[in-house]
Amino acid sequence: MKIKVSWWVLVVLFLTLFGRSGYARTGDGGSTQGQGGYQVGDAVSAFRLKNTDGNMVSLSDFASSKGVIVVFTSNHCPFAKAYEDRIIALNGKFAGQGYPVIAINPSDPGTHQDDTFEKMKERSTAKHYGYPYLVDDTQQVARKFGAGRTPQVFVLQKSGTQFVVRYMGMIDDNPQDASGVTKLYVDEAVTNLAGGKPVVTTITKPVGCAIKWKNQ
Known about the structure:
7-stranded mixed sheet; globular
């Protein structure tokens, strides 16, 4: 346990000293999302991206779902890696309740080689994701959502023919230690929605690796 805590202390220290490396810091005052972006209550535009199985996946493919859990994530980010099993668990818990996970990788493979499409396929297969892992190679979907970090979550609820944002932010309140989590933001949001109740906490500040935009 000491080794695990020490490793995360070093990570946090590194991020504090070298904030420009692309990693988020809590309360750093910087932008946590791309230009523009959806707000809670907004309807999401349709998107269509390539999955790691080679097929194209559209938001409209989930028309029969009650909603979806959109997670912007990546292969290289230590925060995304720390949350990987928790994302898998969210899909395992909520897909059957009508809220499956859609994972999207907007990371520039020119900046991080671990985020190439081939590496995405390898990771999805090795971890048996059980949900789509889509490549946002133009980063346009991430920009529309206003995503700025990996991981960053948007819980969408089906309303008529549209998907509406009901929660946006972090998965829970403890990136470094799943056993130390006290606030299950996404879990609580989806549980409420599935039970016909409103989401209590609708926005939290995502903590993770900053998305490197290709035109910057």
